[in-house]
Protein backbone atom coordinates (compact mmCIF):
# COMPACT_ATOMS: atom_id res chain seq x y z
CA UNK A 1 0.00 0.00 0.00
CA UNK A 2 1.27 3.46 -0.77
CA UNK A 3 1.68 5.85 2.13
CA UNK A 4 -1.23 8.23 2.72
CA UNK A 5 -0.68 11.66 1.19
CA UNK A 6 -1.69 14.81 3.07
CA UNK A 7 -1.15 18.44 2.19
CA UNK A 8 -2.41 21.82 3.37
CA UNK A 9 -3.48 24.76 1.26
CA UNK A 10 -4.58 28.29 2.06
CA UNK A 11 -8.31 28.96 2.19
CA UNK A 12 -8.35 30.95 -1.06
CA UNK A 13 -10.11 30.35 -4.37
CA UNK A 14 -6.75 30.00 -6.13
CA UNK A 15 -5.96 27.00 -3.93
CA UNK A 16 -8.68 24.86 -5.54
CA UNK A 17 -6.60 24.33 -8.68
CA UNK A 18 -3.54 23.55 -6.56
CA UNK A 19 -5.52 20.85 -4.73
CA UNK A 20 -6.74 19.35 -8.02
CA UNK A 21 -3.21 19.15 -9.41
CA UNK A 22 -1.80 17.56 -6.24
CA UNK A 23 -4.59 14.97 -6.08
CA UNK A 24 -4.33 14.14 -9.80
CA UNK A 25 -0.55 13.73 -9.48
CA UNK A 26 -0.83 11.50 -6.40
CA UNK A 27 -3.48 9.25 -7.92
CA UNK A 28 -1.55 8.98 -11.17
CA UNK A 29 1.56 7.97 -9.22
CA UNK A 30 -0.47 5.31 -7.42
CA UNK A 31 -1.70 3.90 -10.75
CA UNK A 32 -5.36 4.68 -10.07
CA UNK A 33 -7.41 4.30 -13.29
CA UNK A 34 -8.01 7.53 -15.24
CA UNK A 35 -11.81 7.43 -14.87
CA UNK A 36 -11.63 7.19 -11.09
CA UNK A 37 -8.85 9.78 -10.96
CA UNK A 38 -11.15 12.16 -12.82
CA UNK A 39 -14.02 11.55 -10.33
CA UNK A 40 -11.81 12.00 -7.26
CA UNK A 41 -10.24 15.13 -8.73
CA UNK A 42 -13.69 16.57 -9.49
CA UNK A 43 -14.88 15.88 -5.94
CA UNK A 44 -11.67 17.38 -4.56
CA UNK A 45 -12.58 20.55 -6.42
CA UNK A 46 -16.11 20.51 -4.97
CA UNK A 47 -15.07 19.81 -1.37
CA UNK A 48 -12.18 22.30 -1.35
CA UNK A 49 -14.45 24.94 -2.92
CA UNK A 50 -17.00 24.30 -0.15
CA UNK A 51 -14.31 24.63 2.52
CA UNK A 52 -13.01 27.88 0.99
CA UNK A 53 -16.53 29.29 0.59
CA UNK A 54 -18.02 28.34 3.95
CA UNK A 55 -15.12 28.36 6.44
CA UNK A 56 -15.39 31.46 8.63
CA UNK A 57 -11.98 31.11 10.27
CA UNK A 58 -9.53 33.83 9.22
CA UNK A 59 -6.30 32.68 7.56
CA UNK A 60 -7.48 29.07 7.65
CA UNK A 61 -5.57 26.18 6.19
CA UNK A 62 -7.50 23.41 4.47
CA UNK A 63 -6.11 19.91 4.70
CA UNK A 64 -6.55 17.39 1.89
CA UNK A 65 -5.74 13.74 2.56
CA UNK A 66 -5.74 10.70 0.27
CA UNK A 67 -5.53 7.17 1.59
CA UNK A 68 -5.49 3.90 -0.33
CA UNK A 69 -6.23 0.96 1.94
CA UNK A 70 -7.02 -2.32 0.23
CA UNK A 71 -9.69 -1.64 -2.38
CA UNK A 72 -10.79 1.61 -0.70
CA UNK A 73 -9.60 5.04 -1.75
CA UNK A 74 -10.58 7.80 0.68
CA UNK A 75 -10.50 11.53 0.06
CA UNK A 76 -10.77 13.80 3.12
CA UNK A 77 -11.02 17.58 3.15
CA UNK A 78 -10.77 19.27 6.56
CA UNK A 79 -11.09 22.86 7.68
CA UNK A 80 -11.02 24.58 11.11
CA UNK A 81 -14.69 25.67 11.12
CA UNK A 82 -15.98 22.68 13.11
CA UNK A 83 -19.32 24.26 14.00
CA UNK A 84 -20.60 24.45 10.42
CA UNK A 85 -21.24 20.88 9.26
CA UNK A 86 -22.01 20.35 5.59
CA UNK A 87 -25.57 19.75 4.55
CA UNK A 88 -26.97 18.32 1.38
CA UNK A 89 -29.58 20.67 -0.01
CA UNK A 90 -32.07 20.79 -2.81
CA UNK A 91 -31.40 23.35 -5.49
CA UNK A 92 -33.60 24.78 -8.18
CA UNK A 93 -32.72 24.46 -11.86
CA UNK A 94 -31.75 28.14 -12.09
CA UNK A 95 -29.47 28.26 -9.04
CA UNK A 96 -25.78 28.62 -9.80
CA UNK A 97 -24.45 26.80 -6.74
CA UNK A 98 -25.41 24.31 -4.08
CA UNK A 99 -24.88 21.09 -6.01
CA UNK A 100 -21.44 20.11 -4.71
CA UNK A 101 -22.53 17.65 -2.04
CA UNK A 102 -25.16 16.16 -4.37
CA UNK A 103 -22.33 15.48 -6.82
CA UNK A 104 -20.27 13.92 -4.03
CA UNK A 105 -23.23 11.72 -3.03
CA UNK A 106 -23.71 10.62 -6.64
CA UNK A 107 -20.09 9.85 -7.56
CA UNK A 108 -18.64 8.45 -4.32
CA UNK A 109 -19.47 4.98 -3.02
CA UNK A 110 -19.93 6.51 0.44
CA UNK A 111 -19.47 9.93 1.97
CA UNK A 112 -19.98 11.71 5.26
CA UNK A 113 -18.47 14.12 7.72
CA UNK A 114 -17.09 14.14 11.22
CA UNK A 115 -16.16 16.79 13.73
CA UNK A 116 -12.89 16.86 15.59
CA UNK A 117 -12.03 19.05 18.56
CA UNK A 118 -11.00 21.92 16.27
CA UNK A 119 -11.95 20.81 12.75
CA UNK A 120 -14.57 19.27 10.57
CA UNK A 121 -13.76 16.75 7.88
CA UNK A 122 -15.84 15.83 4.85
CA UNK A 123 -14.84 12.50 3.35
CA UNK A 124 -15.65 10.49 0.25
CA UNK A 125 -14.81 6.82 -0.25
CA UNK A 126 -14.39 4.98 -3.53
CA UNK A 127 -14.02 1.24 -4.10
CA UNK A 128 -11.45 0.34 -6.72
CA UNK A 129 -12.44 -3.33 -7.13
CA UNK A 130 -15.71 -5.16 -7.45
CA UNK A 131 -17.39 -2.13 -8.94
CA UNK A 132 -18.98 -2.31 -12.41
CA UNK A 133 -16.92 -0.40 -14.94
CA UNK A 134 -13.95 0.08 -12.63
CA UNK A 135 -10.56 -1.47 -13.18
CA UNK A 136 -8.86 -3.44 -10.40
CA UNK A 137 -6.01 -1.85 -8.47
CA UNK A 138 -2.68 -2.57 -10.18
CA UNK A 139 -0.76 -5.36 -8.43
CA UNK A 140 2.25 -3.10 -7.85
CA UNK A 141 0.40 -1.11 -5.20
Order of helix and strand elements from N to C terminus: EHHEEHEE
Major β-sheet, in short?
5 strands, antiparallel
The tally of domains stands at 1
Number of H/I helices: 3
**Rg over alpha carbons:** 15 Å
CATH homology-level superfamily: Histidine kinase-like ATPase, C-terminal domain
Give the DSSP E fraction (strand runs of 2 or more residues): 25-35%
Q: Could you estimate the helical fraction of the residues in percent?
A: 25-40%
What is the overall silhouette? Answer: globular
CATH architecture: 2-Layer Sandwich
Q: What is the highest CATH level, the class?
A: Alpha Beta
Low-pLDDT sequence parts: 130-141
- Mean pLDDT equals 85
Q: Which secondary-structure class do the elements indicate?
A: alpha+beta
Within the largest sheet, what's the order of strands? 1-2-3-5-4
The first-to-last residue Cα distance is 5 Å
Per the CATH scheme, the topology name is: Heat Shock Protein 90
Count of β-strands:
5
Describe the protein's architecture and organization.
The protein has 141 residues and is of the alpha+beta class. The chain has a single domain (5-87, 101-127), classed as 2-Layer Sandwich (Heat Shock Protein 90), CATH 3.30.565.10. The chain is built from three helices and five strands; from the N terminus they run βααββαββ. It has a five-stranded antiparallel beta sheet, with helices on one face. A hairpin with a 4-residue loop joins β4 (110-115) and β5. α1 packs antiparallel against α2 (34-54). Residues 130-141 have low confidence and may be disordered.
Amino acid sequence: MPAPQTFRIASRRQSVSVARRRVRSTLSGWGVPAELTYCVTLLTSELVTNAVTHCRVSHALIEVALTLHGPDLTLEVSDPDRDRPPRLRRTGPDEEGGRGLALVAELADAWGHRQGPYTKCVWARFTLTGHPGRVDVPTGL
